[in-house]
């Protein structure tokens, strides 16, 4: 009996579509249904693709939200997102059921463009050769711009990047000419 119920749930094409992380919701009704299925978007870790799943947001708004979170801004409630986008809260209220507001202690993150060898070696997923390569690349080329630049320059796998996500952030170092 339980197997049949599980099979029926998993074979539901609407459910399958709504659970697909690359599916863009077509209506507010789909958002409400997705929330019932347990779909959540963590607003403080959402990517542009995550935000674009929502029919109310443009690519410019999605990029703006991601840029804000990458620079350390955290959203604690729907009103924060509305303020960041200069939108009325009531316009965003229909998407609230799938938004998840989690707090992350950013003090645990190192700025990869300023971290010393000793600091990098404190991160459990960074060994000495990787830490040395990170510093060498940074010193001989330029600051890392973002995760894509970091991954490309160090030839890291997706799994390695995933393991590093909680520990690193990218803030450009101030050059002498900027002062």
UniProtKB/TrEMBL annotation:
Superkingdom, taxonomy of origin: Bacteria
Protein's recorded name: DNA uptake protein
Organism in which the protein naturally occurs: Roseofilum reptotaenium AO1-A
